[in-house]
Amino acid sequence: MALKSSWELALERTGGKSAAKLTAGQKAKLAEIDKIYTAKIAERELELKPKIVSANAAGKVEDAQKLDEILRHEIAKLHSKLEDEKEKVRQGK
C-alpha cells in the first residue's frame, strides 16, 4: 500500500470536492498572517536558543532541557494560533 499525499487525504475527507477558491484579499491576509507568525516564532527562537546553548555549555543540562521544552511548547502554540487564524480567513470570518 503506497503512502498518500496530503492532497489525496484531503480529497478523501471532502469527498473529492476541492476547497473553495480564495479571493485576492483572503490570499493577501493569509500571507500577512504567515509573516506575522513566522516573525513571532523567530523572535522566540532568538530569545531562547542562546539561553539553551549557554545552559548546555555551563553543564546545566536540566535547565537546557526545560528551556528547550518551553521553546517547543511555545512554537506549537503559535502554530496552532496560526492555523486558527488562517481557518477564520478561509471561512470568511
Can you tag this structure with a few keywords?
93 residues; mainly alpha; 3 helices; 77% helix
How would you describe the overall organization of this protein?
This protein is an all-alpha fold and 93 residues long. The chain has one domain (21-90). 77% of the residues lie in helices and 0% in strands. It is built from 3 helices and no strands. It has helices at 6-13, 24-57, 61-90. The longest helix is centred in the middle third of the chain and has 34 residues, at 24-57. The model has no long low-confidence stretch (mean pLDDT 89).
Helix content: over 70%
Question: Which structural class is indicated by helix and strand composition?
Answer: mainly alpha
Q: Give the strand tally.
A: 0
Shape assignment:
elongated
The whole-angstrom Rg is 19 Å
SSE diagram, text form:
Elements: H1 6-13, H2 24-57, H3 61-90
Task: Put the structure in a nutshell.
By secondary structure, the protein is mainly α. It has helices at 6-13, 24-57, 61-90.
